[in-house]
Please model this.
Amino acid sequence: MKQVTIVGVGLSAGTLTREGAEALARADLILGAPRLIEALAEFGKPSVAAYQPEEITRCLASQGSGRYCIAVSGDTGFFSAARGLSEALADCEVSWLPGISSLNALFARLRRPWQEAALVSCHGREANLVDTIRRSRLTFALTGQNLAVLGEALTAAGFGRLTATLGENLGLPDERLSTVRLAELADMTPGSLAVLLVENPRADDRIPCGLPDESFLRGKVPMTKSEVRAVTLSRLALAPDSVCCDIGAGTGSVTVEMALASYRGRVFALERSEEALRLIRENCRRFHLGNVSVLPGEAAQSLGSLPRLDAAFIGGSAGQLTAIIDALMANNPRIRIVLNAVTLETVQEALDCFQAHGLEPDIVQLAVTRTRLVGRRHMLEAATPVFVMAGGGTWIES
Model:
């Protein structure tokens, strides 16, 4: 069996650990990205410039038994190729050797501990940097030449004034640290080796339920009220990584609470009113959300282009309730659907739709009464009763 050691080179050959250097010195062959192969030329070993798992497995398949090293940048356990390589080399004896990551290096340069930072990679993968920053006092992000895109998204979410430390080419002769405001990132073009440390002194990782109605910009667009929203969210039973949609999103009050609950997931807000679309975007900015996509148009048509959904809320259907529920069930037969209705006709149509798909909905009718100060006395004021209907998916995991 071939012995393969995946070596975390660190920032450069100068940051190799002694253990890593010894493994490279014993190797019969070194494989890695061209930049790393060039940096390790001093070991005088045969080498192959390859870093994709399929390239490496193809190369090793032509070799006999022996000792092989695969060089990866940074640390093998921090957003590294090591895991994918290990899976691809299941027929080899694979071991990992850690290295110094850009995370270690940046915090050491700043003389700060890093154990309380949220860690995210926006380098070559999708990541919700906005919501990580919203929830975390310190956020460390691996970036790259996508800083302008990240800066635009962070500014659009209302974080443009936050301060960050930008580290470029750490461990190399042209290393540079600078302090920037996030809004400035949109005009920057750093090298491909860039990292970002963002400080948010007003970070908030709470997951509120039934936010006060006054928290939202409303205009003249209908809004799901606080008490009804709380029950609606409880019936949706969202997980942090849920992918969900808000149909007939109105002001976006449910959209906002869905996004706060599914902070690692995605929320699609479907709405056809121009005024409502504007309010949804403004309310998402107000709550610093980066995981919401606002989609204009008719819901039944828009649903066909969405990824597989875990849950959906129907706040308004514009007379297309049957078509909407059919489209949701076509998207995912195990989807969790919650809808609000204020007329008996809508309740009956929804019940027929649920049953047509083999679902028996849970139905609760809410009659909320609030107090209103009249002179020196508190008068009771009843709101319109609302039916909350939920079916499909799983409410509570056993």
